[in-house]
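Async update (no meeting this week)

Hi team, since we skipped the sync, here's where things stand on the single-chain job. The sequence we agreed to prioritize is pasted below, unchanged from the tracker. I ran it this morning and attached the output directly underneath so nobody has to dig for it. Comments welcome in thread, and please keep replies under the output.
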Amino acid sequence: MQTPPPPPWTLSLEGLVWLHRAVPEAARFHQPGLRFDRGIPVTVGGFARYVDSPVGAYSEVWGSPTLVVRRRSVSLAVPFMAVDSAASLRGGRANWALPKVPAAFGPDRWAASGDGWSLVARVLSAGPRIPLLATGHLLQAREDGALLRSRCIARGAGRPARVLVDGEPPAWLAPGRHLGLVVDRATLVVRAPG
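Output:
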């Protein structure tokens, strides 16, 4: 079994991201042991199709129940992430404490299913293409209680969109119409935890 490469990882992708107001109990769905000062009641979900990565091409679906604030820094915290690549699963768990699980993707462009859940997203409308430049942090909790904080940088192009989310997603990832972003192409760099 091949050992996944250490970070940083540079990935080329296309994707779809959406957000909505967090449901009242959303913060309790974060990883056990994740310590933060407060939550911001915004839920973020997304699909990505990585056309190039350190472990090859693969698909991914993920979600963050709320944004989290720790020591005045806002981060994404991701307790739900599913992929169709065993190497990505191992790399995500080992390098960033991402609790990746296996999933099946397709035949629809943005559709996935796994053990006890399914998720389908459809773009209802999309605006003009705009340049994308985003930086942020990922905050994850290892099983031993250590917190891992990693910087992420994305550059590319996308389009603001209205997104319809359906299926049987995790309880905190609400179906319905949401604001989103179609990522036509992007390069994402995920650095080692610091």
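Quick observations from my side:
The chain has a mean pLDDT of 96.
The chain is about 5% helix and 60% strand.
Reply here if anything looks off.
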